Amino acid sequence: MSRNQALFERACKTIPGGVNSPVRAFGSVGGTPRFIARAQGAHIWDADGQRYIDYIGSWGPMIVGHAHPDVLQAVQAAMADGFSFGAPTEGEVLIAEEIAKLVPSIEQVRLVSSGTEATMSALRLARGFTGRDRIVKFEGCYHGHADSLLVKAGSGLLTFGNPTSAGVPADVAHHTTVLAYNDVAQLEEAFASFGDEIAAVIVEPVAGNMNLVPGTPVFLQALRELTARHGAVLIFDEVMSGFRVALGGAQARYGITPDLTCLGKVIGGGMPAAAFGGRADIMQRISPLGPVYQAGTLSGNPLAVAAGLATLRLIQTDGFYERLGTATTRLVEGLAAAAREAGVPFASASVGGMFGIYFSDQAPACFADVQHSDTARFNAFFHAMLDAGVYFAPSAYEAGFVSSAHDDALIDETIAHARSAFAALAR
Ligand code: PLP
């Protein structure tokens, strides 16, 4: 028996489903999850010593590759001074200043430890600020697992065919209105009928939790105008797209200024750090200045801040996003060409360092489109690539991620393996 298999069997005895986050379980693709022993650059190694080119990158954070020497050194230096103090540190000031510099809509920012905390806190703040309860989200967008947001959410929940979690009280879900992504007419209708009840609209401006579906400029612009007109708070959930689709996130790419922004993943460089921030008049409503409570024992943890700061410095090097975007385009175009050669219906898309692959003729524009992807074909492709040493997300509903450590040779190697995988699918 492989070590992966043995570890999975042991894990299942003491950890529900053998994993600490559902999509890791290979539930929808079948087979045994790989237990990762170490990672370096664009590669990960499993418990059996098998090496893979990694296109998950810890689901987004590892934008400069794994164990980058600068990040490693920053964390080691911070670690030598102690792990956590529960008191303010200079590093928190530095990272707050860095975030505000890179994302100009963020005048003030608070650090938390996960994307879920960031979105949950941003919602509470928006409700406290407006004095309203209703929130609007979009089908297929995932914003972490706070109760109000587990309504028709994406990826992990879609993978398990259960868009609304058990355990969410109906009274809580009742305050969440779910609309179709990229549907301006429906949005206008919703604001016309209950716009003045809406505390916040939360959106992934580039959705990465129903595979990859970029928001259209007209949709995002309509969101900005309607929320402003009705006194609702516009929250961009850039936990995934932040520092990923552009240095200033999706808001810089689209030229839209949200009221609040949620960040995570890249700002922790692989350590548990996330943040929410935005307009100072809203942010000043949180405790200790205002009446909206929000707190965290490990918030602004010194090791996470050190990893985040080192990562934020690396992504500001000249040409970083041009190179990342070019590498990601090379990958998705190469995959699409390989599928075409084999006659397999396939589409792909990318925004900055994020990409999506779909086993259908057209890239999707909303959640309903995503469901046209041929998941049986995706699963066969996933396993063929895994066997060849390429680690894509184990779900047809997840976006993929490229890092600055993915050079042309690795991308071309990936495409060569895909050529064989597509040929086998076409047979
Ligand atoms: N928001 C978005 C857009 C995400 O993609 C995720 C996680 O994938 C979250 C929020 C939740 O972040 P976390 O898993 O750190 O709680």
UniProtKB/TrEMBL annotation:
Classification via NCBIfam families: hemL, PRK00062.1
CDD domains reported for this sequence? OAT_like
Name the catalysed reactions.
(S)-4-amino-5-oxopentanoate = 5-aminolevulinate
Highest lineage ranks of the organism?
A: Bacteria, Pseudomonadati, Pseudomonadota, Betaproteobacteria, Burkholderiales
State its location(s).
Cytoplasm
What quaternary arrangement does the UniProt entry report? Homodimer.
Q: Name one Pfam family in it.
A: Aminotran_3
**Name of the featured protein:** Glutamate-1-semialdehyde 2,1-aminomutase
* Alphabetized GO MF terms: glutamate-1-semialdehyde 2,1-aminomutase activity; pyridoxal phosphate binding; transaminase activity
What is the organism of origin for this protein? Chitinasiproducens palmae
